[in-house]
Amino acid sequence: METTTKIEVRYPDCDRMGIVHHAVYPIWYEMARMDFFEAMGFSFADMNALGVNPAMVDLHLQYAATATYPQTLTIRTRMGEYAPKKLELLYETYAEGSDKPINTCRSFHIWTGPDNRSYNMEENLPEVYAKIKAAAGS
Length: 138
What we know:
Layout: E1 2-8, H1 25-40, H2 44-50, E2 53-63, E3 72-83, E4 86-95, E5 101-112, H3 121-124, H4 126-137
Antiparallel strand pairs: 1-3, 2-5, 3-4, 4-5
């Protein structure tokens, strides 16, 4: 499964030269991650209601080109590796009209439960883990 998230670059996202500041990309990837989970059928609202969280433990970004104001960007999000207690998401950001990503990202998450400890999704929420497997396979 792959989702797309549209981003309109805002003026406050940029430095004085009109280039998007590097610290803005993780915020955009959080938005794309929320869209991905929503499309998968396990939204952040669902997670909050159950007390589970995909706690981020690693974030790796590669900058290939700049984004500027005003510009429309598309973030493509898909799943990488996964297991009952962990999940990797992969992101590519494209400027409108371009087929080369201007930024790529990998986020790595550990599932935590209501007690904020490691949580086995396959054992505790098998119906949700089935959605994760399906999203990874499509």
